[in-house]
């Protein structure tokens, strides 16, 4: 199903892609690429809302009124590219967002080739590594960050838990998490005793969990994302794995997943998250205030992530004093601003935002101070590959 | 894979298979009786799962949720049958697929509007939240309870279909609706009853599955895929076929999780292709 939502600004309501070219002058046309249907529609919807609310909040960038349009890619990278081609063919140069790494990598090439700028939230390392380009910027920490900012502090606290078993989604992001995890374990002298791959369409994990239990690990690491992470952890806990195995979920979306699990499942489990609402930071307070006005609820990662890519575009344009692409890119490189996780810096060498990634530990229900207080921050780390090791050759 | 692990994977596969049976038996029953292709079957599963979520939140009791989930699905099935689907019985299968798929999408989007697109947790009842030790392995008590309920439903359903007047009418109707009609039986009421029963069975599967996997708006379409595989493997319209098909698919999936994890899901379809090669009408289907 295709849904296209034009959110505000001049020509709102009637606006669709064909009208984009007509809106010129004092307006900045921005397109968001999200999946509002398909496997990751639950993710895409919230990301899009975060972006929409940020643009509503800022209103203008470099003195130009922002006009935001959603391009629904239906979870399909090919469709995402076609929608972006249509939009850019009609004059849109500023693109934000993605729902999966595969979509981001495909769109990044297209936007670069057509002379635009693209700010996204892909999880695969390649986005600011071997597939980097001058036009593309990434907000969240990727798989290298997720593993290094969770597994290393976890090992410091649980030095005796040496035998690791992994359940991994067999797709780009899962593989990337697994590769980084193996590397960290080798560094630390810990043992990777086995792995079960599962496909992107899998929903029943009891067989993989049985295989994990029979390997008798000290630690189970779950290397996937989205609803698959929800199902694997839920089923692992139901099979009693928390009794004698520590569980680490290096990549979690945080609050929304904690709410889906409930405190009984979260208790005692380690999670890696890119964003946590409880972090004290001026930029976080702004996001929280707007999201609370909109939803009367607490900000989750997906909303914050959608917000962050929009904020980067606005901050860059304001610094440049222009929305022209070359000036905007120059302004974004090295830009420091107050983002949702504190002071964030866009690294010029690979266009990666340097920010904290958090290791969290699930709390017992009785220790929760409010309904969103599912976990405590155990460590906040800026763990990024040095630029010379990312494999990024900026083009 | 050691023998011990293999035996456990087989047992686990039987557990998964019983859940798949529950999910698909309503679908096969409706097709067997009416030759009606119901792509809205997954929507009934979805509605029941969300009903279970709402009731468990409101009452704190999963037992009430297990009662209201199937009732909600049966109600939706009856309303859909009376208002829309009965007008499509004479249409070709392609039209039925399009119409029922539209119903499934409307229900899915309705759930997103009423709730939101995020997954929700449905807690396991306290008295079933533990684990059971099976030799060196453990098995969740709730999962074991689901298998027991599915087995009980299979027995009851067999009894209802084979030993009651309603079952005899259903079976006769699947052979020749015209003949049943000529005998003075109101076939439309039979169809309505079959839809309600099929909906309640899908609903029971949804309500039972809610604590196993949580609820989210897209679970209906996922369930539909598995249900169709089971029905095709077992033989369209066959109650026994749904049971055998569910068990076969569950065992294949579980055992392959250890033998070839990355291909476990693929092998479900591999098993289906193999069965269709050997028996084109499915395990218990009639050519």
UniProtKB/TrEMBL annotation, chain A:
Write down the InterPro entries for this protein, in alphabetical order: BCAA_transport (IPR051010), Leu-bd (IPR028081), Peripla_BP_I (IPR028082)
Instruction: Pinpoint the Leucine-binding protein domain residues.
Output: 28-360
Q: Identify the stretch annotated as signal peptide in this record.
A: 1-23
Pfam family of the protein (one) = Peripla_BP_6
Which keywords accompany this UniProt record?
Amino-acid transport, Signal, Transport
> Gene3D superfamilies of this UniProt entry?
3.40.50.2300
Q: Does the keyword Transport apply?
A: yes
> Is the Signal keyword given for this protein?
yes
Return one Gene Ontology term, BP aspect.
Answer: amino acid transport
Q: Which PANTHER family match?
A: LEUCINE-SPECIFIC-BINDING PROTEIN (PTHR30483), PERIPLASMIC BINDING PROTEIN OF ABC TRANSPORTER FOR NATURAL AMINO ACIDS (PTHR30483:SF6)
Q: Name the protein family.
A: Belongs to the leucine-binding protein family.
Give the protein name, as stated in the record.
Answer: ABC transporter substrate-binding protein
Organism field? Neoroseomonas soli
